[in-house]
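Retro notes (design track)

What went well: tokenization of the new backbones is finally stable.
What didn't: we kept losing track of which sequence belonged to which structure.
Fix going forward: every design gets posted as structure first, then sequence, in one message. First example under the new rule, 344 residues:
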């Protein structure tokens, strides 16, 4: 019986329809002695659609190298950007942009190395604002030495130009990590608007990142969880910074209660959506509130830390008891309800 050959397009179509998983596909290939074309990369789910990540040395190398290049071509080079002449800045930015754009496109769409290509195109999206800034600076459009309001307008325009490129790369690649760049650009736009209207930048950050979190929850509820992780991560990190600054600067007890409630709600989200990321940031927020309470409001009360420690241990014990006996409690309730229904 001749061997059957499948292309990567067939495999992707079946997986996108949810007909088979990557594990099932690999078992079928092995059990039925099927021959798969080299173009059909079945090594990891990440290499096909990015919906599920399996860690292995190759993927670790992808992400390690990708993030190293991302940090080098954005933050690290920006720190020393003034050491270059105007011509060198333009050539450097243009070479990075064209090289990453062409290499990422070739890897992702031609050679089907989706993670490797997606990470390279992530760098393209992140570097594009630097290219816009360099071009504006050389042409004299950037208000060098201008007022804070003028710089805020220029910063806003730079990000307005960069946002469509990042969104386009996200739409074409469906590489969800590019959500980080999209969220970052939107955040910087909000900060620029805040600078124009003289708003508190910590408040702007808190509101913007809160919207990111709510957007991620909305996408989760609409069955699009694969699009939400990086958006929620950026939102939670930004909210942690902005909201904590506001909390530290405020002497209002009501604002402190609001701060605590927000992070208790995040802990509740971790139970509702079964996502640890909410729990991590929620616990950090609650601990921040407790530490502020100890050092600012209850300074000199030696027994308070002991009480808080006992409360913490008590919560753990209560959780253990709940986990140990919840099945029996609910089972007894169910049996009682059944007996009552029979009596009626």
């Amino acid at each position: 019986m001749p061997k059957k050959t499948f292309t990567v397009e067939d495999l992707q179509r079946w997986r996108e329809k949810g007909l088979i998983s990557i594990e099932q596909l690999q078992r079928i290939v092995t059990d039925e002695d099927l021959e798969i074309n080299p173009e059909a990369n079945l090594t990891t789910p990440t290499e096909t659609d990015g919906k599920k990540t399996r860690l292995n040395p190759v993927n670790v190398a992808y992400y390690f190298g990708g993030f190293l290049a991302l940090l080098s071509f954005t933050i690290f080079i920006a720190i020393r950007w003034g050491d270059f002449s105007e011509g060198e800045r333009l050539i450097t930015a243009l070479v990075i942009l064209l090289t990453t754009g062409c290499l990422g496109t070739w890897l992702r769409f031609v050679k089907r190395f989706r993670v490797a290509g997606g990470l390279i195109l992530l760098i393209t999206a992140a570097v594009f604002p630097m290219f816009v800034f360099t071009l504006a600076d050389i042409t004299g459009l950037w208000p060098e030495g201008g007022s804070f309001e003028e710089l805020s307008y220029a910063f806003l325009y730079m990000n307005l130009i960069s946002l469509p490129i990042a969104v386009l790369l996200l739409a074409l690649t469906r590489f969800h990590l590019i959500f980080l760049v999209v969220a970052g650009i939107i955040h910087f736009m909000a900060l620029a608007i805040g600078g124009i209207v003289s708003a508190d930048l910590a408040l702007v950050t808190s509101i913007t990142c809160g919207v990111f979190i709510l957007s991620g929850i909305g996408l989760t509820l609409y069955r699009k969880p694969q699009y939400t992780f990086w958006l929620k991560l950026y939102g939670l990190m930004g909210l942690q910074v902005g909201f904590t600054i506001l909390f530290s600067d405020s002497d209002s007890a009501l604002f402190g209660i609001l701060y605590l409630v927000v992070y208790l709600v995040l802990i509740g989200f971790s139970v509702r959506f079964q996502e640890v990321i909410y729990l991590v940031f929620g616990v950090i927020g609650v601990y921040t509130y407790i530490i502020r309470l100890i050092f600012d409001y209850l300074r000199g009360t030696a027994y308070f830390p002991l009480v808080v420690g006992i409360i913490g241990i008590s919560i753990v014990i209560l959780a253990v008891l709940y986990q140990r006996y919840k099945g029996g409690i609910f089972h007894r309730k169910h049996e009682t309800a059944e007996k009552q229904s029979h009596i009626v």
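Added context from the reviewer: The chain has three domains: 1-42, 54-169, 200-304.
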